[in-house]
Input
Amino acid sequence: MQFKYLMPTKVFFGRGSVRENSSELASFGKKALIVTGGSSAKLSGALSDIAAALEGLGIEYSVFDKVENNPSPETVKAGGEAAKDIKADFIIGIGGGSPLDAAKGVAVLAVNDMDPMELYTNSFRNKPLPIVAVPTTAGTGSEVTPYSILTRNDLKTKMSFGNADTFPKVAFLDPAYTETMPFNVTANTAVDAFSHCLEGYLSKRSTPPSDVLAKEGISIFGSCLDALVRREIEGDTREKLLYMSMLGGFVISQTGTTVLHGMGYNLTYFKDVPHGKANGLLMAEYLKFNYPYAKEKTDNVLRLLGVETIDEFGGKLASILGEKPHITDEETEIFASITMKQRSTASNIRPVEASDIIKMMRNM
Amino acid sequence: MQFKYLMPTKVFFGRGSVRENSSELASFGKKALIVTGGSSAKLSGALSDIAAALEGLGIEYSVFDKVENNPSPETVKAGGEAAKDIKADFIIGIGGGSPLDAAKGVAVLAVNDMDPMELYTNSFRNKPLPIVAVPTTAGTGSEVTPYSILTRNDLKTKMSFGNADTFPKVAFLDPAYTETMPFNVTANTAVDAFSHCLEGYLSKRSTPPSDVLAKEGISIFGSCLDALVRREIEGDTREKLLYMSMLGGFVISQTGTTVLHGMGYNLTYFKDVPHGKANGLLMAEYLKFNYPYAKEKTDNVLRLLGVETIDEFGGKLASILGEKPHITDEETEIFASITMKQRSTASNIRPVEASDIIKMMRNM
Output
């Protein structure tokens, strides 16, 4: 047994968690920059809760709400400038994965004069500003990971940076903030969170504690699967999905992701398929590909999900996620070549060649 | 679902973890005080590994090796003076629970002019020095908790302090360091670690993530139970016990302990029974007492341990732990009164009265 474990974010989970624990914000300083995408932060009530908390503590703040879906390094640079302009002491990311990931880049660039492309070196002269994360989707897990995933137009994909200093210091996880998500966003983000649990469990970098957390997340996704198939997100399903999303973040903070995320990024970059859906559409093929190298773990996954076969699970995912994009043979070759360059591909439990990726994408 | 989760310690688990990750020490400064009990640190090889790591990094160090079993606030005060004398930048605790707990107090007193009894206020003007923890037993979990448990002669018991700043920054968990423990220490400390998992699981303060970790620890203890009964600690049992101990620390960092720890302190303070053994001797009665309030959880515990009944488990514990101390009726009344004053007693899943404690102690 040989492993490293680190998950330093302080998590407050539950309804009203911002209001009840707002004093946590007091230690970070007197000026905050809120980084968000504009719509979900407002709609969910998260932005107004955070604003009220800051006002109650006498902390000044500005709002940078220009984060697009799948944010670019340029957006992060603009956020860094905004933080410098107000001399921010800390950064608060509110939203789905895009604003939370952008907030991490902003926290670095706020105190480092560097080109945003240098973020990928993971080496920052000055420690990033403290980051507070408030998710409004139950998927990314970014609230409890060090990772920030930005779009690399030069490489035509998404790629992550992050080190121990880009873990959020505090995360407020309130299931109420996820209630305004439409069904397709709920479904796509839930599958993303599940993908973190699944890929961490099937990673070469999996560890005993990450496996414990991953199995819990997989089991919780299993308990939500029928509700997702029925498109009836009721009762405690929202809080279960948010809890699973947190567990997925705990897991990939130890293990990173695998070839599934790398493949999925192509569908997002070139075909505009939402991130979680992209992973979900490829998931059955991914499980079949890995099966010879992870029979026991895959059988555990199916058991924890409450399904008999990979195909049964794939059928449920298909019904949850909707239609698949059309991909030409030429495109699969390009996608395979791009995926082979992702670091996470090397973590896959079964060694991956470009031809394997082509096969998985065609079979999908 | 409503919980807080915090476990910020960076853990390096595995054989050779100090050697392989010694660079982690570089960020804490140029002068270290090593706090230890003297014997296990040397015998286990942990002290020489840490010394070699510090020398390799050009970090000066002194050794304060005056920590007794169940350390007193006075010892911690002396350690704090030693740290001040050398202007230590950080504190390294090496040993069982006593040196690790003392190291936390030393880290606070090194930078705060306060009476050691004020440690229990958990309010420190200056942040404690960074703490590095290197356990040589598999029991305390102190390497991954904020808690420091010191002997309170005024209250005739042991009592804990600690806040988010007394979590060790880094913990090196090397099962090789635990191999020099004699069987009785292995057994007593293993039961202590299990007690953390068990009490966390049966605490009113238990949370979804603490329950996941607790169940894993309970299951691992179950897989070591027969080896402990046979007194044959071989193969990967050492590393399983150390991993369980880490999980127990993760758990009580969320939940704290319960009435079992509070009762056990009496046997340690008045009867000189080692801490883990003290909890273990009372464990079957504790499980029976709580059963009406935690049927499902207790049944889970028995299933994860691989035993049929509480009595079967109690029998195994008795054979592992050896003879019980003699306690008079008068003593049980005093012990009950002292235990009722422990904060952890209020966390017990079943409300506790003094008469309940008297009954459990008599039945033991």
About this structure: Strands of chain B lie at 3-13, 31-36, 60-64, 90-95, 131-135, 148-152, 157-161, 170-173.
